[in-house]
């Protein structure tokens, strides 16, 4: 996905003189083509993430569209106040592009992990959030983000589904499989695991690569078509991040929701591969299968 980012950005900067890239010493070699072709529109501020967002806000006020990139804890958590004020309060657009998911960079520890990034941005007004599940989806969503006007967060990861899905930048849900016992909504790179985990269950599998705005109309329609109004959310970040929106979509319908994602109960302090951490959070195929089956059985 990071390669898709580098390629699409260089090409977009060829075509759109509004675009400027702001970096904080991350992915500089990968983005060499953009810097070489457009040296006056690429700014590397060093390891100064708050300044990075401030520069993006200034570029926005000057009529430019800044594309800002680093790892998620340094893009969202560390400069959160600047995101709130320099972008949100001043009501200027920008594209924040992270790479590293919740814990892709497992070897460098907690400082490089950010399962709460989407939940943090969810506390601010006016953000579009894309969570592609495949490099081809990432390329399409990045191109739409560059061409847009508002504030967009694109969350890239090393974890990927085997096959891409058609994506709608407006956020419309895609029904991948139909069933009767409930709905499982898979976000981004969770789709492949969800399909494998529910292969023997009579459930609808819906897919979202855009989570803000969440397609509440499409989600409601899918849940109402099932015999059981049961919904399982499977997100690659903090568990329950989208539960409040799903609840609002179904507020006049008796329903049950189970939210799967990175655990909230305690900080996981063990080290291991991203795939081992998936298992520890119940986000591997066996963990998802067990959680979904147990939840649906409780609703009988």
UniProtKB/TrEMBL annotation:
SUPFAM superfamilies: Thiamin diphosphate-binding fold (THDP-binding), TK C-terminal domain-like. InterPro entries: PDH/Transketolase, THDP-binding, Transketo_C/PFOR_II, Transketolase-like_Pyr-bd. It comes from the Bacteria. Pfam families: Transket_pyr. Coiled coil: none annotated. PANTHER family: PYRUVATE DEHYDROGENASE E1 COMPONENT, TRANSKETOLASE-LIKE PYRIMIDINE-BINDING DOMAIN-CONTAINING PROTEIN. This is Transketolase. Gene3D superfamilies: 3.40.50.920, 3.40.50.970. GO terms for molecular function: magnesium ion binding. Residues 1-164 form the Transketolase-like pyrimidine-binding domain.
């Amino acid at each position: 996905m990071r390669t898709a980012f580098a390629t699409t950005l260089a090409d977009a900067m060829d075509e759109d003189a509004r675009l400027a890239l702001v970096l904080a010493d991350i992915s500089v070699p990968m983005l060499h083509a953009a810097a070489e072709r457009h040296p006056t529109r690429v700014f590397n501020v060093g390891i100064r993430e708050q300044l990075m967002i401030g520069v993006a806000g200034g570029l926005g006020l000057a009529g430019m569209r800044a594309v800002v990139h680093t790892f998620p804890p340094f893009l969202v958590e560390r400069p959160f106040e600047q995101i709130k004020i320099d972008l949100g309060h001043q009501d200027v657009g920008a594209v924040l592009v992270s790479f590293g998911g919740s814990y892709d960079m497992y070897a460098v520890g907690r400082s490089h992990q950010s399962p709460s990034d989407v939940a943090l941005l969810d506390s601010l007004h006016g953000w579009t959030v894309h969570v592609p599940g495949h490099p081809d989806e990432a390329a399409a969503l990045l191109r739409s983000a560059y061409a847009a006007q508002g504030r967009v967060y694109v969350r890239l990861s090393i974890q990927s589904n085997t096959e891409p899905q058609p994506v709608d930048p407006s956020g419309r849900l895609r029904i991948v499989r139909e069933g009767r016992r409930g709905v499982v909504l898979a976000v981004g790179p969770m789709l492949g695991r969800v399909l494998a985990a529910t292969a023997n269950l009579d459930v609808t599998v819906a897919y979202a690569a855009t989570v803000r705005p969440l397609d509440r109309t499409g989600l409601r329609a899918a849940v109402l078509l099932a015999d059981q109004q049961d919904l399982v959310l499977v997100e690659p970040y903090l568990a329950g991040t989208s539960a409040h929106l799903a609840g609002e979509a179904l507020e006049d319908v008796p329903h049950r929701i189970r939210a799967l994602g990175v655990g909230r109960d305690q900080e996981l302090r063990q080290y291991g591969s991203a795939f081992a951490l998936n298992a520890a959070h119940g986000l591997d195929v066996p963990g998802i299968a067990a959680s979904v089956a147990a939840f649906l059985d409780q609703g009988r």
